[in-house]
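Case 314 in the screening queue. Each case pairs one protein sequence with one candidate compound; here the compound is magnesium ion. For every case the pipeline is the same: read the inputs, emit a complex structure as tokens, and attach any notable structural observations.

Predict complex for case 314.
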Amino acid sequence: AGLKKYFPLHGGFFGKKTGDVKAVDDISFFVKKGETLGLVGESGCGKSTTGRMLMRLIEPTEGSVRFDGKELVGLGSKEMRETRKDMQMVFQDPFASLNPRHTVEQILEEPLIVHGIGTSAERKQRVGEMLEVVGLSSYHAKRYPHQFSGGQRQRIGIARALMTNPKLIIADEPVSALDVSIQSQVLNLLEDLQQEFQLTYIFIAHDLGVVRHISDRVGVMYLGRLVEITDSDRLYEEPLHPYTKALLSAVPVPDPGQRKEPVLLTGDMPSPENPPMGCAFHTRCRECMAICSEERPVLKEITPGHFAACHLYD
Ligand code: SF4
Ligand code: MG
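Case 314 output:
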């Protein structure tokens, strides 16, 4: 709640602080046990920073992160390490996040060693089990990451995240680097694993098409702010925020008869170093009104369970 991440901007003589980049600017949301929350927005909107702040891989400038009733901000490093057993990340580029000189067995064993779980024999047995769970087999354990395809490497990344038996998985664009046919295989695997292990997911993506199927609720971010959040079906059927509408119009519709009038996004996303006054989206919004460049709209419940930050609904 109230999460902020400001990076200091240094410029001018002697590296004097000239301002802040508001990478994440006051966002609040919750995730229920067992559900999948999608977080969507263009690159630079702060979605990855948000995911990392939840794990405290990045320290929030301000705000609170509660996990299982426990406040994580300000927790000592030993306790934080304990808690991280229960929350794991899956990254976009499985190759970059897997040490190329380690075998799959070493990669998967590492989180257990870090947390002091099991004997060597027990750890190796768990490696074999987890490889099976993600659709590989224990005979892959002695191989190196470069010997696998992109989809297989992402399966290894997922197996690694599951090693400590976590409750929450934060997946940061886990399928963005994969071919479309492989994407659906990995998404199906994530859904099966959610059922099997009662996992809660936060699924970060830049594409609304990818998160639709997997998410129970979806939050849309723009320039460090949450602009809309509601149930997945509702977001796709009755989007409220002009930015969400524009993003949705870019998602391919299987039946061309259903295709809506495209609302294309014009212009680039403004720099977070110098965000527009008022509504951060007003420089690109087709429904922009006078008030929009003056007053920042707050996230409000427009219909039950459907929140949006836009002056159209004042
Ligand atoms: Fe557009 Fe104004 Fe709504 Fe912002 S507040 S999205 S500028 S209508
Ligand atoms: Mg990112």
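Case 314 observations:
- The pocket of magnesium ion (ligand 2) is lined by residues 43, 48, 173 (CB under 6 Å).
- The domain at 3-86+166-313 is CATH 3.40.50.300 (Rossmann fold).
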